[in-house]
Each structure stands twice: as C-alpha cells, then as structure tokens.
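Thread: "does anyone have the structure for this chain?"

Original post by V.I.:
We have the sequence but no experimental structure in hand. Need at least a predicted one for the grant figures.
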Amino acid sequence: MASLNRSGYEKWAFLLISGDPAPEGDRRDLRLVAAARGLSPREAEVLVFLARGFTPAYIAKSLVLSISTVRTHVRNIYRKLDVNKREELIHLIDEG
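Reply from O.Q.:
Generated one for you, tokens below.
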C-alpha cells in the first residue's frame, strides 16, 4: 500500500467506508466529516476503522503500519476533529 498515491488512498478509504453493514447515511456522513475537517487520506482510512470500534493494534495490523504511526494518526484525527476520546468521535460522526 505504500506505493498508492493520494487518489489511491481516497479510493481505499471509500471502499472501506462504503462496505456494509453501515447504512448509506452513515457512510456519507463519515466522508463529509473527513473532508470538512481536512483529514489526510491516511487519517481518513484510520477514521473508518476508529468509527467501527477497532483498536489501534488492529488498525496497525490491517493497514500494515506501526502501532506508533497509528497512534500519531489517531492523535491528529482527534486534534483536527476537536475531540478527546472515542465516545466524542462517535458522537461527532453520528451528528454529521
């Protein structure tokens, strides 16, 4: 995956976001949140996993990243979305 360009990351994030069982409205909301808050393509990928409740360890394994890199992405996502914990993140996504 390291060789993917920006559009490749966006396509990957879209595939993850568009996967079931999330209803259409939820998928659209997640894309809108990521775009509106200026998340990088990789942060958008991590956001998809976070929104589904996965741990940083699982995310690291799935995206072939170090746990440290995932934690950095999570910190950046929380900062950009102005949240401090996962519950706030889920609430933000639910609100759109």
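V.I.: this helps a lot. DSSP finds six helices and no strands in the chain.
O.Q.: and The chain has a mean pLDDT of 77.
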